[in-house]
Design a protein that fits this description.
With 293 residues, this protein is mainly alpha-helical. It has a domain of 104 residues. It is 82% helix and 0% strand. Helix 5 packs across helix 7.
């Protein structure tokens, strides 16, 4: 009965996987337009064999689009391709599903009598957990990446304000300030300004497009305020200086919150250690009282 149930579940999962690959769902119009207008992601390593084997063939299926739709901005800021993200999902799922059968199989070879039901349920639980791990990891890495970008963007705005105060034009102040940095954030800003200039659009529209691509609202807010200020250098300089100040204040608040969160996490091991110490000391006395009754 247990073997038949397991074979039925595996057969059903295989049929669903094959059907999703042979009859892919239609791509929503919004996703199709986004793929047409989105800038190419800067990623390397898609030629790796495990990405080609596990990700390339599944990225355009319904399951692949579902796995990448909610994290497309995070993948963009990380410079990671959708194929690699799907490949990570598939690899984690295979590890989660096969770890328990492999472990219990080795135990059976060693002479340990193990029921077939336990590894089946363990595989299902591990498989569901494995599906969520890549997405959570990507979101955590992208959040850290955005914090680093905001810090660099605040420095960029300070440089722009200084150049505007020195009499430079808006476009020259932006391009000169973007060329002053060497990090990946300044490289993204330079690329956005270059693309806007090649399209014949204002520089602010390039920053707004970059903010939409990597989900950093400060870029879009700055573009909107600068667009309202027009081409007057004084008004633009005031808007840029205020935005840089707000970014610094937010960065300090985030750093303080992270420090407080780390302090709270440090207290948890101490509490667990004291709890174990109290149980270690109190268990003999409790055991003596219970045995005396």
């Amino acid at each position: 009965m247990n073997h038949a149930l397991a074979l039925g579940i595996l057969a059903g999962l295989g049929i669903i996987l094959v059907a999703s690959g042979l009859v892919p769902a239609r791509m929503p119009l919004g996703d199709a337009l986004y793929r047409l207008d989105a800038p190419p992601a800067k990623h390397v390593g898609d030629s790796r064999w495990w990405v080609r084997l596990l990700g390339t063939s599944l990225v355009d299926t319904a399951a692949g689009r579902m796995a990448t739709r909610s994290v497309r901005h995070d993948l963009r800021i990380l410079g990671r391709s959708p194929e690699e993200h799907v490949a990570r999902h598939v690899a984690m799922l295979l590890v989660g599903l096969l770890w328990a059968p492999a472990t219990f199989g080795m135990m059976a070879v060693g002479g340990v009598d193990v029921s077939f039901v336990l590894p089946l349920w363990v595989s299902l639980v591990f498989g569901m957990v494995a599906l969520a791990v890549p997405t959570l990891a990507v979101r955590s890495e992208a959040a850290e990446r955005r914090r680093a970008f905001r810090h660099a963007f605040g420095c960029f705005l300070d440089l722009v304000a200084v150049r505007l105060a020195g009499g430079a034009g808006v476009d020259s102040a932006l391009s000169g300030s973007a060329a002053a940095g060497d990090g990946w954030a300044f490289a993204e800003i330079r690329q956005a300004l270059t693309e806007a200039r090649l399209r014949g659009e204002p520089s602010w529209s390039g920053l707004a497009s970059l903010g939409d691509a990597i989900a950093v609202p400060e870029l879009q807010e700055l573009a909107a305020s600068a667009g309202l200020a027009g081409d007057e250098g004084a008004r633009v300089r005031v808007s840029i200086a205020s935005k840089a100040r707000s970014i610094r204040v937010r960065g300090l608040a985030d750093a303080e919150g992270a420090a407080q969160s780390a302090s709270e996490r440090m207290s948890l091991p101490v509490v667990l250690l004291m709890t174990g110490f109290i149980v270690f000391l109190g268990y003999p006395a409790v055991a003596q009282v219970i045995n005396g009754l």
